Amino acid sequence: MRFGAWKVALRLARRDALRAKGRSALILAMVALPVLGVTGADVVHRSGQLTPAERVERVVGGADALVTALSPGQSVEQAPVAEDGAFAVQPRPGRQPTPEQLKAAGADPAALVTSLLPPGSTLTPARTGPETGASSPEGLVRTLTTEADLGDPVWRGRLDLVKGRAPTAPHELAATQAFLDHAGLSLGSTTTVQGLEGTPYTLTGVVEHPGELGRVELVARPGELLDQLAAAAEPGRPAAERAQSAHPSWLVHLPGGAALDWAKVQLFNAHGYTLTARSVALDPPPYGAVPYFRDSATYRDPAAGNSTRVVVATVTGMALLEVALLAGPAFAVGARRSRRRLALLGAAGGRRTHIGAVVLGGGLVLGLAGAALGVALGTGLVAALRPVIEEVGGARFGHFALPVPDLLAIAGIGLLTALLAAALPAWQAARRSVTAGLTGRDTVRAPNRLVTVLGVALILGGGAIAVYGAGAVRRGLPVVSTYDTRTLTVLGGSVTAELGLLACTPLLVALFGRLAGRLPLGPRLALRDSARNRSRTAPAVAAVMAAVAGAVAIGVYSTSTDAENRRDYRPQAPYGAVQLISHNDGPKAAQLPAEVEKQLTGLGGRADVGQLVYRFCDNCSSTVVLKGPADVRRLADLPHVATGDVAVLHNLFDVRDAAAEKALAAGKLLVFDRSLIGADGKAVLLLRGGGGAPLQPGQIPRTDLQEVPVDAVLVDDPAAARFAQGLMPTTALTGLGLASAPQGAVWRPTTPPDRKAQQRAAAAAVRLDHYAELTVERGYQPKSDAITLALTGFAALVVLGAAGIATGLAAADSRQDQATLAAVGAPPRIRRTMAGLQCALIALLGAVLGAANGFVPAVGLLKSRASGAGSQPALITAPWGELLLVVLVLPVVAGLLAALFTRSRVALGRRLS
């Protein structure tokens, strides 16, 4: 067709769009909304992708480099930016240390770093302290600690002051916003740090790590906090150990003209230090020149982390198909309402291609407008909501990105979607007889059997492709690349299966129409009208199907993932238990539980818990464990044997068994795992460390590992085995030469205390023992409920919206039929009945088909994820409540709403003769 004919067709399409403003606005919104969403997501994604300069700035701040003593005395391999990955290379047996390793092992770290850097370089310590507690109005908040001179430009970009002022006087701190939110404090408030309770600190400023906005942290001036914490820590206590074992780091400012290259980075690595240099990050070495990339690949799963991206890509593809399906009926109704004008065009000499071009031109005009509107609104919304998006995402944008190629591609997809939506109505309009268009009499065709057979084949083939794609990498089948192949095959298979269901939809609608003869007048007319106008009904059903399929796909995936996380969750105590963790065996040991009971009422009986240890010399002990098969699956995170009485059996292990209580009273060991007890009724205690004990004159050295068999009683309870391998009564320890190390106490209240009460009790315990912790076992906390509910809400809106749109289009398309019914005396309620049942039918068919189709990608990906070595079987579950809402409740609601908002009476447009 010549260009001049296209100009005429586009002019007619533009006039038709302006004439039917309501229908045009509907199509415009359906095209613009998904373009808006994809544009916003793309701008957010691109803005969050840091350039090399932005990435290294968040590591080194305003400095030129960051040096960290990762493992002095060993070799280190790292990525060009060490924070992206680094590890110490384990020495091979028999290999002698290198000169660099020997030099680093005995050198002062700061002096060594200075000697390796260009002369004149300045070092600024980047000290990070231990995690500790800080007082709040409710009690105690866990927080990280660090020291930094916030007035020094060297920190800018790594740690920024965003509100208030930097600490300038003694006993002043800056805090992150996350700390203030957790503690319920504000600028000007005071807080005390665990271990330094006699020194109140004033909060003067709010700081943030641009790449980690959720970090809970206190920042002090250099020399104001960390040394004091280390001095206050008792020798051997966890805080002291953390302070001594932390990897020291320095920010490096180079003299003018000096630079660091990859060779210098490797020199630092040879001494056991990592070096992140701005110059190397901006001009990284070739991939093959980085040993880290070669050696660390063996520790990476090439398919790890792809499942979620594949699901998102699959749902995105379904959403694009959904837009075409939603807009298609609107174009079809528009073409049918304009059939007389189109027929006049044909009668005046226009060809079929000219008629089709007018309808297709409507897709072009509205697609261009909708795509442009969506891109503009999406970009504007991201700009307006940037602070909120950054807070929710937990990181600042590196820059506000406007990727022109991406935006043009998104606009092109929106335009293509509109053209696809208009393609079938254009083809149908071009095939319509001119006579039929002038008289308004269209023939109804039976469903094409070939299309139905093709649809069934697509369903089977698409399902097979999706399952293959999800498991291709794990099974070692030939693929082109890890990420792309899985995405394309799962996306292609799922969309193929959905297209197959779409092809079968006209037949399903026709089959429902055959049931009309057995129904009353209203339902009979509704079903027959839907079956007769399958070109309008089937796309609406498919639109609902696409929305529900996408929601079900992510819903099943997230719910199943949540179920697997719940299965793998390892509680520290039975649900609702209050656990005081304290290793204090001094004079305050008895005061701690009493103070907790004073703060928390209604705790019930107390159980004092210990841990079985082997003391092989003064101040030398090791944890005692039970010997079991080499392949035994450890239910407890840290295998050990607990010590205590019947109260421990009740409170910690949640076991109430008369035989077990009797055995415990008799001094026997209780074992909770069948594989840890032999056929002779004995369990074997493994004692480690005896070989290191000092020898007395004439004493024979003992082996480092001893096996001690003891009488044991089996309490076959896997749930109890999660907390410890066994329970040894304290009365039996003396005869075995073993001891009990205090671990704290456990209570089982009827109702778990709330978090505020827990904070108050924790603060009271810390006042007596700086290293005491108070926890409440609240069970597994699901993380996917919000996602599932949001997706269900989205699917519900689409179900109601698509069904309502199709019903409205049907009402507009059948005005002549409605006028005929009114003229022959049909009661007014018939119109409401027809609208309600048509809407319910569309929603029900689409929801059922979509729910079935949505399981395909989710199940395939879950099976794939569980097929790796050592993986547990996949748990396939679904959000049944949400599915019930979408599949059964929403169709009823859609039908009732359609009937409610449909006028009972219709005005006759012309007198019938």
TrEMBL record:
Coiled-coil residue windows: none
Top-rank taxon, per record: Bacteria
Membrane topology annotation: Multi-pass membrane protein
A GO CC term attached to the entry: plasma membrane
Signal sequence annotation: none
Record keywords, A-Z: Cell membrane, Membrane, Transmembrane, Transmembrane helix
Organism: Kitasatospora aureofaciens (Streptomyces aureofaciens)
Protein's cellular compartments: Cell membrane
Protein name as it appears in the record: ABC3 transporter permease C-terminal domain-containing protein
Renumbered residue ranges of the record's region Disordered: 114-139
Record has Cell inner membrane as a keyword: no
PANTHER family to which the protein is assigned, alphabetical: BLL1001 PROTEIN (PTHR30287:SF2), MEMBRANE COMPONENT OF PREDICTED ABC SUPERFAMILY METABOLITE UPTAKE TRANSPORTER (PTHR30287)
Domain ABC3 transporter permease C-terminal: 324-433
InterPro entries from the UniProt entry: ABC3_permease_C, Membrane_comp_ABC_pdt
Membrane-spanning parts: 310-334, 355-377, 407-429, 450-470, 490-516, 537-557, 786-812, 839-860, 880-901
Primary localization class, coarse: membrane
